[in-house]
Amino acid sequence: MVLGLLIGAAIIVFTVLNPPSSPASSPSTQGPDHSETSVRQAAQLMLDTYASGSYGDFWDMWGTEAQGLIAREEYVRLFQLCPQRIPGTSFTITKVTVTGDNASVQATRLSEAATFDFLFESGSWRSVPSPDLRQEYQSKTVDQMVQERQAAGTCGAAAATPPATSPVPPPATPPATPPATSETAPPVTPPATSPATPPATSETAPPVTLFTG
């Protein structure tokens, strides 16, 4: 019994002098890959890809689960039928918040602001659609989404192929000395030109949508 007490006391002393080390933080939430700079760079690339109209490439940057919500070709078709209203307009990131393998990015486009979610997956940051978009992709077809967006006025004009134009011939130059004629030619009157009319503007244009998908 005395021996057992001595062994127990020795264990207690050893534990006090050598406390167990705290478990190391998960490597998935540490390092430069999870820095604000890393998230900002990944988010800016994705938003620039969307703004440029490269929808297939933008879909490629989604998380695996998100890609299962809508097929790549259907996502591209969605924007072929309902393009952005302000294509080519870049986003400006204003705030980045990183929480483990999740990140929230706030960005503005023109005068509107929105928040985008990102997930660190397979060694890189991937875009995650908002809950509203996820619900839309799961419950509606592309044609249904297009009809609703067109009715709401959030679709831009589809790209049209400009008609072929023939070169405009240069104006004819009258000869320096007109040929002698028995009759006096009537004076040439230049065609009347009407002042340029500025394009009509709508007073109740639909609001510009920052991000539609």
Please characterize this protein's 3D structure:
The protein has 213 residues and is of the alpha+beta class. Helices cover 34% and strands 15% of the residues. The protein has seven helices and four strands. Strand 3 (112-121) and strand 4 form a beta hairpin. Helix 5 (72-81) runs parallel beside helix 7 (142-152). The chain starts with a helix and ends in a 61-residue tail after the last helix. The relative contact order is 0.13.
Secondary-structure map:
Blueprint: H1 2-17, H2 36-51, H3 55-60, H4 64-67, H5 72-81, E1 92-99, E2 102-109, E3 112-121, E4 124-128, H6 131-139, H7 142-152
Antiparallel strand pairs: 1-2, 2-3, 3-4
Helix pairs in contact: 5-7
User: What's the story with the biggest beta sheet?
Assistant: 4 strands, antiparallel
Integer-rounded radius of gyration: 33 Å
Q: Which strand order spans the largest sheet, edge to edge or round the barrel?
A: 1-2-3-4
Overall number of strands: 4
Helix content: 25-40%
Q: Number of helical segments?
A: 7
Strand percentage lies at 5-15%
Give the overall silhouette.
Answer: globular
What is the ordering of alpha helices and beta strands? Answer: HHHHHEEEEHH
Distance between the termini: 74 Å
Structural class label:
alpha+beta
Report the mean per-residue pLDDT as an integer. 78
Low-confidence segments: 1-17, 21-28, 197-205
